[in-house]
Design brief:
By secondary structure, the chain is of the alpha+beta class. It is built from 12 helices and 10 strands.
């Protein structure tokens, strides 16, 4: 076991932290109040080679390991959840899924420009009537010659108005239930595609989230991702990667909550002393520190399994569940430490609390992950090897797998 970051990883953390301090934190309150997402942030992340940080160099990425993706997500969420979410969706849910399941032609056409940050990727699984119950989706893709005709809609889609490419799931054979779901790469410019942002969210207000619609969208058969009927399997493996980034982001939110609380504890005095001298305040800070350290260990353990090319559904589920719960509690305690000021946008902790709720819900609610972990312990659930695992890292030693 090695708990040390490499020199390259330390440099990456410093770079992303510096970027966040200069490009996000000074403006985020204004963006949050306006419900405004600044797409130029994604452009600058692309220029820093951070939109494909763990994508092999041969496909336009930086070729770093999977825990480097976790570092990027930690530091971005320290600034705001919206920008970590953008990387989670673009890299974790979309690009890594194409790397894992795409043909060589699909990787060259879609993955390369996404890894370079020239195009933005998104992910469409959730529907108005289908969240945790994936098999309840109603979107359909009917074969028509060499094309598929896609109809339906998706909701709560991050980057709905900004992304160029979407991985979308639809039934190609409803009689087979979840075995009849297939995955497709859909381009925004395809006739019949449209999107609409959702307003009035509790948190992540500076993120672009909404609905996407498909009205007789004609998709060439070359855009089928994997095989017909593999959509459910592809979706679940994509969620492993997405949940990993969400867990890493939660670590960043705990960091932010702790940093702001420590600063305030030294500034604010009550009863003639810094509030940090009060034991119950110390208890909240101690719980934040414990949550930070435990969550980080869970995240980087899952990342190391990814580096080794091993199945990590169980470990990633545990990391996502625990880190998001710890982050929600840390943000709540940060507001409590700030007292009345914590209830005001004068300090960022109220935004932390609002932002911390969504990750407890999306990409598997805490209840879903609780059930998963119970089933693992009881032996009711067992993960089998995937036909198309993510390539192990270092990628240079696994080019045959990447090119398969």
């Amino acid at each position: 076991m090695n708990f040390e970051f490499t020199e390259e990883q330390e440099m990456l953390r410093k770079m992303v932290r510096s970027f966040t301090d200069k490009e996000i934190i000074p403006f985020i309150q204004q963006w949050d109040e306006r419900g405004q997402f600044d797409p130029s942030i994604l452009q600058r992340l692309g220029e820093l080679n951070l939109m494909g940080v763990c994508i092999p160099e041969q496909y336009g990425g930086s070729g770093m390991d999977y825990n480097s993706l976790a570092i990027v997500c930690e530091e971005l969420e320290r600034g705001d959840t919206a920008f970590r979410t953008a990387v989670s969706v673009h890299t974790g849910l979309n690009s890594l899924t194409i790397l894992q399941w795409g043909t060589e032609e699909q990787k060259l056409k879609y993955l390369v420009p996404q890894a370079k940050g020239e195009k933005i990727g998104a992910f469409g699984l959730t529907e108005p009537g289908a969240g945790s119950d994936v098999a309840a989706i109603s979107s359909t893709a009917v074969k028509d010659g060499d094309d598929y005709i896609l109809n339906g809609s998706k909701t709560w889609i991050s980057l709905c108005d900004l992304a160029d490419h979407f991985i979308v799931f639809a039934y190609t054979d409803k009689t087979k239930k979840h075995h009849g779901i297939s995955a497709f790469i859909v381009e925004r410019e395809m006739p019949g595609f449209s999107s609409r942002a959702i307003k009035g969210k509790l948190g992540i207000r500076s993120g672009n989230t909404g609905e996407i619609f498909f009205d007789q969208v004609r998709i060439p058969k070359e855009n089928l991702l994997g095989k017909e009927g593999e959509g459910f399997k592809i979706a679940m493996s994509a969620l492993d990667n997405g949940r990993f980034t969400v867990a890493a982001g939660a670590v960043g939110l705990i960091m932010a909550s702790l940093e702001e609380s420590v600063n305030y504890c030294h500034e604010r005095k009550t009863f003639g002393k810094e509030i940090g001298k009060h034991q119950l305040v110390q208890q909240m800070l101690a719980n934040m520190e414990a949550g930070l350290q435990m969550s980080r260990l869970l995240v980087y353990r899952a990342g190391e399994l990814k580096n080794q090319g091993k199945r990590n559904t169980r470990e990633t589920s545990l990391a996502k569940w625990q880190a998001c719960d710890f982050a929600n509690k840390a943000a709540d305690d940060a507001v409590q430490i700030h007292g009345a000021y914590g209830y005001s946008s004068e300090y960022p902790v109220e935004r932390f609390l609002r932002n911390s709720k969504a990750p407890v819900i999306y990409e598997g609610t805490r209840e879903i992950h609780t059930i998963m972990q119970g089933e693992y312990v009881l032996g009711y659930r067992e993960d089998k090897p995937l036909n198309n695992p993510l390539p192990a890292w270092p990628f240079e030693q696994n080019k045959d797998m990447v090119n398969s």
